[in-house]
Amino acid sequence: MTAGALAASAAFGLFSGALAGLFGIGGGAVIVPFLYALLGAPEWSGIALPAGETAVVAHATSIAVILPASLSALWGYHRSGGVPWSIVVRMGSAAAVAAVVASRLAPHLPEAALRGGFTIFLVAVGLRMLLDRRGADLRALQEERRGDGLLVLGGLASGALASLLGVGGGMVAIPFLVYAVRIDVRHLAAASMGVVATSAAAGALGYGLARPATALPWGAVGYIFVPVAVALIPGAMLGARLGVRLNRRLDAHRLRVAFAWLLLVLAARLAWGVVSAA
Length: 278
Prior knowledge:
two-stranded antiparallel sheet, 11 helices
């Protein structure tokens, strides 16, 4: 891995962390496209991956970056007493199981399928952010529902998406907690972060213990490319704190619209890449 690639990873970690803190979602939505570009340019990055392995290594490495940031945030919520552990344990357990299964399935999927799935995810998130300007009127929702079957269903969906696509899973967990579980808004972010942390831990474990069919370059642990993850993590954690501070000062609606368009532009760029490579 070249010095330029390390520097770019450190800088982008800060950028992605700031976006995550600013908009309240995991940084995987922007980390994964960056990793596609980095891992797909061996002449610049010095990372030469076997053909067809770029997407799965990008998704696995993104999960490894999301893990420490989500655990740090979860610990902060725990210290303030804001984590609804009865929900997190049941939903997070299902998410962990789904994340492990998805991490073992992902290496066997065609790279175009992984890239295409991630592109669809970006479009869905971008459109949701554009159309849902204010979010649900939480005051109109009924009391919480905590049935085991409901929480398991949401956990399975969140964990599978998070692990397959290399994202936090919060964009699935949050709407599910709001509209299906109807959780108290004061506990929403903490519950979502608990699900993200458990699915990220399980997904990172699954990817890290996997044995690639073809040898990966030095620095890879399973499908996780550790040097890139280590370069991204400090900036991502620092950037998240800066993003939270900016969120309190800037116009939330305009930022939300700007970020939604950023995701849609990224999706269009990735879609063109998938189509042109076919």
